[in-house]
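subagent[fold] <- orchestrator: predict structure for attached chain, return tokens only, no commentary.
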Amino acid sequence: MENASVRPTDGIEIIIDSYSDMLFRICFVMLGNEADCEDAVQETFISYLKKAPVFEDSEHQKAWLITTAKNKCRDMLRFRSRHKQTDIEYLKELSPDPSDSGILEALMPLPENIRLVLTLYYVEGYRVEDIARIIQKTPSAVKMRLQKGRKLLEKK
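subagent[fold] -> orchestrator:
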């Protein structure tokens, strides 16, 4: 008779189903191409399985996944800084709402730190305080990045 212990992979399908689309959009905005995004999201879930973190609630879990994905993207950007590629044709498929596809496309040329804040705020619907916790900055720094991002978008 087998032991009925809980494995680290129990429930991973639910977590992947719940967060993969959101993480993919965030990674796409940061990295600019589908293949790199798939790698970053996959590496995020691998980190989740390896570390098996314990969370206070689902928002803590979501913030951990976003932070981990952001860090994976930054690592990839550092590594591939000389070989940046932008794959714009997939933007419409990535948008949660087809009318939002222009938002993602407009965010692509912005600096990475501003892109991430605008994506979390406008596309994913996070509050300033939540974004500040995720990116480990003050709420006033997040507000400044939102303001800079709006000004840059107005110029376009």
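orchestrator: received. Logging for downstream: The chain has eight helices and no strands. Residues 1-8 have pLDDT under 50 and may be disordered.
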